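[Meeting: bench + compute handoff]

Bench side (C.D.) handed over the final construct sequence. Compute side (W.E.) agreed to return the predicted structure before the next meeting so the bench team could plan truncations. Sequence as handed over:
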Amino acid sequence: MTEPHGLEPVATFCGDCDCGCPQLFVDPAAPAEQRIVLTDDFGQRVQMSADQFSSLVEDAKRGRLDGIAAP
């Protein structure tokens, strides 16, 4: 999949196909509160600050998000 212009890729979630997997980017040109960009496979995107993203990562590490992915 082609990366959005000007964004620095960090991670691709899945990546085993060519269907437009969700991706994580840093947008160095964006204001600090919108610097982290998460895209989905439907062409949508979420932007957040590095602090907000760090909080999300900490919650994931603590297991607070474990139940979300369960069927």
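W.E. noted at the follow-up: DSSP finds one helix and four strands in the chain. C.D. will use this when planning the next construct.
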